[in-house]
Write a structure and sequence with these properties.
The protein has 265 residues and is mainly beta. Strands 1, 2, 3, 4, 5, 6, 7, 8, 11, 12 and 13 form an eleven-stranded mixed sheet that branches. It has a three-stranded antiparallel sheet with strand order 9-10-14, with helices on one face.
């Protein structure tokens, strides 16, 4: 009998065709974060039981929209010499929630532009969809981009299904000790997979958590931010539209994913 190999589908005799290599996965990237406040009830409706909203003094209406330009690879580092498998961009919305008397970060919406990143996110519990993400890149020479210094101006956009969903603008005013507070906790996700019978029940319904290891952080820059979210017939970002902008941040980040923990199944 043939033994099929590969971390994820498709599994083959050699395993070479698998969409994902096995962890660990190493990430290096630039992150633009826009934090804002929205209607807390709109956040609460995104938190299924047994999750609950943050306490009143824990900013229950706080949201972070993070644009990220990543390079990621497995332990063999083959992707570094094949950049189509190395590079991707994503944009994701993070809120906070309570579970087992602890405060967590939680991704409620996310778009990526590569299939391997989509599949990897589903494995981790991120609700990833395909989209188009663009970010201004900082430069160190020439005039075709901003410097990572006071006055540097950046833009970022998100689109999906041929519709613009978000536009962000950020101007550096100084340095910061952090890159915000909303996305600064361990992630709490659901891994859901409906049963093949399509009877309204799930084959997989788990609550999982994960946090990176070997984290490296570059200097953080803070500044003024603007954000516009747009309506779409197949998205719900207008329900978490900004009421007040908190601020913006830019930071380069490196981390490694080695696996997560199942908290409830």
């Amino acid at each position: 009998m043939v033994r099929l190999n590969g971390f994820l589908f498709p599994r083959t005799a050699t395993g070479r065709a698998s969409l994902l290599t096995a962890p660990p996965w190493h990430y290096s990237g630039d992150l633009l974060t826009i934090e804002y406040r929205t209607d807390p009830s709109a956040i609460a409706e995104l938190l299924p039981e047994p999750l609950s909203p943050p306490h009143e003094d824990e900013e229950p209406g706080a949201v972070a929209l993070v644009f990220a330009d990543w390079q990621s690879c497995a332990d063999g580092f083959e992707e570094v010499l094949d950049p189509v498998r190395l590079q991707y961009k994503e944009a994701f919305f993070v809120v906070r929630c309570r579970y087992r008397q602890q405060l967590w970060s939680r991704c409620v919406y996310i778009w990526v532009d590569k299939d391997f990143a989509l599949a990897r996110g589903h494995l981790q519990g991120y609700p990833k969809k395909l989209g188009s993400i663009h970010m201004t890149r900082p430069v160190t020479v020439g005039k075709a981009g901003p410097r990572l210094a006071q006055g540097g101006r950046f833009g970022a956009t998100l689109a999906a299904s041929d519709r613009r969903l978000a536009e962000a603008r950020f101007t550096i005013t100084g340095t910061s000790e952090t890159s915000g507070f909303v996305n600064g906790l361990p992630m709490l996700h659901h891994r859901w997979l409906p049963r093949i019978e399509a009877d309204g029940t799930d084959s997989i319904a788990e609550i999982v958590t994960m946090r990176g290891s070997d984290v490296e952080l570059g200097p953080a820059f803070c500044g003024e931010a603007e954000l516009d979210l747009f309506a779409s017939p197949v998205e719900e970002l207008d329900r978490i539209a900004p009421r007040e902008i908190i601020g913006g941040y830019w930071r380069s980040v490196g981390t490694t994913f080695t696996g997560g923990t199942t908290l409830e199944a």
